[in-house]
Amino acid sequence: MVREKVDQVQADLANDKKPDGQRTIFHDLFTNDSLIPEEKTPERLAAEGFSVVGAGSHTVAHTLAVISYHLIANPDILKKLQGELAGVMPTNDSTPKWSRLEQLPYMGAIIQEGLRVSCGVSHRLQRISPDIDLTFKTSPLVPHPFGNRTKEWIIPKGTPVGMTSVHLHFNPNLFPDPHTFSPDRWLGPNAGYLRSLAYCELYLTLATLFAPGRFQFELFETGIEAVEVKHDFFNPSQSLSSKGIRIKVF
Predict the structure, then answer these.
(1) What is the pLDDT of residues 176-193, one digit of tens each?
(2) 7-36, pLDDT tens digit by residue?
(3) What SS3 string covers the chain?
(4) Whole-angstrom distance between the N-terminal and C-terminal Cα of the chain?
(5) How many Å apart are CA 35 and CA 29, to the nearest integer?
(6) CA distances from 77 to 67, 80, 81, 145 (A)
């Protein structure tokens, strides 16, 4: 679908045809004179389009689904969030700005914890040091079979290395009781928040769904297996036997 859109935009521009509807990012890239021709081939733009779709939609949707599950499964956490939201969303038609929502400490902690347990991308993204050898040392934060001794390895330059974020996000030395959804672990003076489109989507969507007095949710034949990471399909995936997150809305 992305490649078809790229080809359509390229053909429209070649025929001086105005876009049907809203201009896309491909219109601007094709007509950007500061880009070299190699950067504007249909193959390159289609690949960039797939990256935007994957990073800008699936990952956010997955994180929202995981956070929503944990909020519905943990009424005490949801109640505390709704108490905080009541201060900025006093009526059912309240629509606070993102800049106001991101100042809510408990909501920010929920989003940080949601990002931790949802993992974003679970694939082992490879990195290569092309010019120098890498030195890898054991860490006291990571369990290893060498006891108190520090072990060191030299990884030759040009060697692909990678690690899944799942091992980091569920490391009990970094996050005690890592399989428990606990926003409180992010509260404190060192908690910081990033400004990005993905964060904006998370704040606004969660506030809209879980503001007090709007909706009541109940899990339907859904347990923790619906959100636990069991497979790595580049993005994290739940067990193949899971029917996904199913809820009742009242």
Answers:
(1) 999 999 999 999 765 555
(2) 888 888 888 887 777 788 888 888 888 989
(3) CHHHHHHHHHHHHHCCCCCCCCCCHHHHHHCCCCCCHHHHCHHHHHHHHHHHHHHHHHHHHHHHHHHHHHHHHCHHHHHHHHHHHCCCCCCCCCCCCHHHHCCCHHHHHHHHHHHHHHCCCCCCCCECCCCCCEEEECCCCCCCCCCCCCCEEEECCCCCECCCHHHHHCCCCCCCCCCCCCHHHHCCCCCCCCCCHHHHHHHHHHHHHHCCCCCCEEECCCCHHHCCCCEEECEEECCCCCCCCCEEEC
(4) 36
(5) 8
(6) 11, 5, 6, 38
Per residue in 110-132, pLDDT (tens digit) is: 999 999 999 988 888 889 999 99
Q: Which amino acid is at 243?
A: K
What are the b/e assignments for 197-217, b being 16+ CB within 10 Å? ebbbbbbebbbeebbbeeeeb
What Rg, from alpha-carbon coordinates, does the chain have? Answer: 23
At 112 the pLDDT is: 94
Closest Cα to residue 29, out of 15, 56, 53, 47? 47
Q: Which pLDDT does position 152 carry in this prediction? A: 86
**Average confidence (pLDDT) over 207-236:** 91
pLDDT at 3: 85
Of the CA atoms within 13 Å of residue 189, those in its CB half-sphere come to 0
